[in-house]
Amino acid sequence: MSLTLIDLPNGFHDDPYPHYAQLRDNAPLCKQPDGSFIVSRHADLDMIYRDTTRFISDKKKVFAPKYGTAAPLYEHHTTSLVFNDPPLHTRVRKIMVGAMNPRALASMEPGLITLVDGLLDELQGQTEVDLIESFAGAIPIEVIGNLFDIPRDQRGPLRDWSLAILGALEPQLTPEQEARGNQAVLDFVDFLRDIMEDRRISPGDPETDVLTRLIQSEEGRLSPVELYQNCIFILNAGHETTTNLIGNALMLLDTDRDARAKLCAEPDLITTAVDEFLRMESPNQFGNRLTAEPMILHGTHIPAGTDLHLCIGAANRDSLQFDHPDTLQLDRRPNKHLAFAGGAHTCVGLTLARMEGRVAVGKFLQRFPEYEIAEGAMRTGRIRFRGFNSLPAKLS
């Protein structure tokens, strides 16, 4: 059995999990036409994430032929935190970890609750709504905007820029998608340049304002390009994945009405439930690493410099790691899913993402326990990020 990322089978976007199961069982190291490999078992991904010596994150070799070295997308994706190794990764991550301190996160929760309550108030009385446009997509853009203290009236284009840039990570791109991604990087940099000029004149509290923290750490640590591109990365990383978490969770609970009834009856389960939503429908389905040296994996010789597609969506349903992996278990413990990757590259914003999921899904169920997903739900049609462009629902 094989799966080719540039020629996916019919129905894959709707339900990739049967294909992932066949990979885990029959081709845990699945070679692609370009010489790369899909890796699908939990144990393999866990090992790769933890080994930063033999498996590296630097993607210059992969992105140069994809975008061209002069392209804005190349500059962005080869400079951002996620596609870098130490020392840049260490410098940026240290700044981010400091900004995501418990005090800062605790100070954000009341505002998040107010935001979610306000969105739910707007939904009240409506018969049918799009849960992505009116709810799931509206939450993270405000949270990240607040984290950077971006004026609310300037946040309008952030989501479209984010979708264009992250969409350019797909295995295959149309010329139009590539052009939109490149333009989005340029527009984002121009936007940040103006914001940063104002912030240098009037700094915020570096304990709670991530942008001020990054700017004040710039001298001797981050170059201007590193500063701009990692700001873009942070704004993007906190947006689509959290939108997907909330949207995917609401779809899962619509599909499994018994689980929904249990969560409504036992709302304290929301903490473990969020991790189960992340496991069952991982917002980020694929990661990547390059081999730094030749090796043998599953009896196959892999040359140095080989691109590995780490299939998080497959690993998170591996029966060798999870009992009844295709069943939604709201109280699953332990739950060693890889939705936040692992090792040195474990997502910096995991605590914030969990908080957003806990507040958003928990409060939505309190207000609309009998909601129903209506016809017309549209997946994004992407394989790296799994979520919905549109999620119509009937509220009661």
Describe this structure in words.
This protein is of the alpha+beta class and 396 residues long. 51% of the residues lie in helices and 10% in strands. The protein contains 17 helices and 12 strands. The protein has helices at residues 17-26, 42-50, 60-67, 72-79, 88-99, 102-123, 132-136, 138-147, 158-167, 175-201, 210-216, 224-237, 240-255, 257-265, 270-280, 312-315, 350-367, and strands at 29-31, 37-39, 55-56, 128-130, 286-291, 295-297, 300-302, 307-311, 372-373, 378-379, 388-390, 392-394. The strands form 4 sheets. The protein has a 5-stranded mixed sheet, sandwiched between helices. A 3-stranded antiparallel sheet has the order 4-12-9. A two-stranded antiparallel ribbon has the order 6-7. Strand 6 (295-297) and strand 7 form a beta hairpin. Helix 3 (60-67) runs antiparallel to helix 4 (72-79). The N and C termini lie far apart (45 Å). The model has no long low-confidence stretch (mean pLDDT 93).
Question: Strand-and-helix sequence, N→C?
Answer: HEEHEHHHHEHHHHHHHHHEEEEHHEEEE
Question: Given the helix and strand composition, which structural class is it?
Answer: alpha+beta
Counting copies of identical and different chains, the oligomeric state is: single chain
Number of helices: 17
Q: What Rg is obtained from the alpha carbons, in whole angstroms?
A: 21 Å
Average residue pLDDT: 93
- Main β-sheet, in a few words? 5 strands, mixed
Report how far the terminal alpha carbons are from each other: 45 Å
Physical arrangement of strands within the biggest beta sheet: 1-2-8-5-3
Count every beta strand, where a strand is a DSSP E run of 2 or more residues: 12
The amount of beta strand, in percent, is: 5-15%
- Structural shape: globular
Poorly predicted segments:
none
Helix content: 40-55%
